[in-house]
Protein 1
Amino acid sequence: MGTQCLICESSAVIDRQAARSIVLAIGALREFMQAWKTLKSEGEPAQWLLHSLSDAMSAVTHIHPDVQSFIADVERYQFGGFDCLCLRCGARFDAPSRATSVAQPASQ
Ligand SMILES: [Zn+2]
């Protein structure tokens, strides 16, 4: 996250790829927690852990249509066609290297 907000200069800026990664990580965590809930006490904990992590990572690589739809909604409603979103002030803008427009005018 090396991009600074063009409005408030905060470094709490994420791009669409980071938002996508966050959604996928939450999905993997959810899969892992589902597996945790079904843990059988007689199983070998280390083997169960490796198996559950493998299943969770597999779920990430095969994106469920609901997750894909969720990611599309995040990109549409949160990013609105721009590359970056400031988590502090909510400004949306394109990455500085290819910035051609800014969602909100800078105050100066
Ligand atoms: Zn900002």
Protein 2
Amino acid sequence: MQLIIKEITPGYFHIKEAKVHVTLVVGSKKALLWDTGYGITDLMSAIRSITMLPLIVINSHSHIDHIGGNFAFDEVYINPTALASAAFFNSAPIREIGLIRTINVHHAVKRDYSLTRMTAVREGKIFDLGDKTVEVIEIPGHTEADLALWIKEDEVMLTADAVNYVMWLYFSDQVKQSTIVKSLTKLAEYPIKNIIASHRHTPLSHHYLVELRDVIANLRKETCIAVDPSAMPLSDHTDLLEFHTLILHKEVQIVMRENQFDIY
Ligand SMILES: [Zn+2]
């Protein structure tokens, strides 16, 4: 499988692997890799074709398309709340099923994740890339342990799956409708010029973030339809509800568990 590299805004590269982008931020002294993809390609060669600077690697959350390439790095930062789930998704049997069901990849190379040091990172941690400083923000919503990264010099927010055209809000019973609204409100307080998301090839705007937050705040169970559970491969999802809306002329799909609605 080919990796596709694109500089989406100066110093910010999207490397596309199957259905996901990992983001490489290149500073003057260090580079930062935001997520590691499915782990089915040679991500390191792609990174080294862009920069030879020392690399900091951070996982946004624990889903299979964001942590699968961790094996290639000595150290990966992660929210400690996501650690157990990351180990689950990268365990051999779950990874095998997950790759088949999400991207139809059979017989993927088995990876050894035991040599990668997983280091806890929490809100407020700052990484210095030289001409860019990267601030870690905790935004539970898509999962209970999502992180975002704020780079103030460029007014860029990296949100991974926490702001998207498809919002999946169902993996944790700890996450409620009000949790995601609170997290998106927190992000909206930053003077954002560009939002870089993992499943979008172009940046999203601050305006989009606010509209998305308001749509989610106004969701009511009665106006949603039940999702076809066969679309959710890894567990029992019979309590999912789906809502489609238009935000800035783009169709946005929001999927939540029935028991997550807590705004009336
Ligand atoms: Zn995800």
